[in-house]
Amino acid sequence: MNCWIISLTPPYSFDRLLRRLETHPDTQIRVNQEKNSLQRVFRIGLRPVLVHIQFMGSLEEPALRYETQAILSTSDQQLLEKMIRRTFSADLELSVIYEQMREESELAILTERFRGLRPMLDTDLFQCMVKTIIGQQINLTFAANLTERLVTLTGDPVENQNGEGIIAFPTPDSVARLTVEDLRSLQFSQRKAEYIIDFARAIVNETVDLERLWTMGDEEIITYLTSLRGIGRWTVECLLMFGMGRPDLLPAADIGLRNGIVHLYGMKTKPNENDIRKLGEKWAPWRSIYCLYVWEAVGAIKRKEMFDL
Q: Facing residues of 167 across strands?
């Protein structure tokens, strides 16, 4: 077993990350609450590598310990560590964001209740986009179920040291080979099945270059991807936030965000998209993080945590 340690920028709450997973289930993650750890598959190239990650230290002196049975070259290990740091937002400096959030009394409480919470990103952009398409206009539980069915159908099984299986998210090639009927049999809608397969085929056919996105600005990416059938602004905004870790997105059409804002600001009527964009102007340049904390307030209510808005 190969083992390494990653330092984290404090404050870092692994507990809040695990609690968020309770209301945002991810079929690619196996959580062990007692050991404060999880298992997750990362792809190095096309190779799926199962990684065991354990939180160490404290909120103010945090670190992650990660290990894998896979034999990795030095370059592969360095790539894996880079992926883990990005996935777990290891270098995000929250203190400057908190200072700005405390300027609004309605949001100051979030910096205390959810101190150390930060985004956990998907491990690759294809996975993030497909999961987001699946999640369009359905609840989180059903979206997780559909995702698990897709992964079970076309993913790559990987075993941990105890012989327990976890399935890596499928590659674009494996999804591109599917038919609409394959997904319809898993309870995907006709259009959702078409959108997912079309997106995978666009990557395989090199109509879409996901690696190119890293060199592009937010609005440029939105324009680039919304030209594809079934992919609207909200979908790309989610990709930017939870696939690329871009810090200043405001998905104003998101229902959960709108509901959270109503509660936090004590509004009597639900704001429209223009209202939210206007409200969010003062959240720049950290609107993605503000949104995460508003969403987490909604999640805390669903989990019946003692949280008084």
A: 157
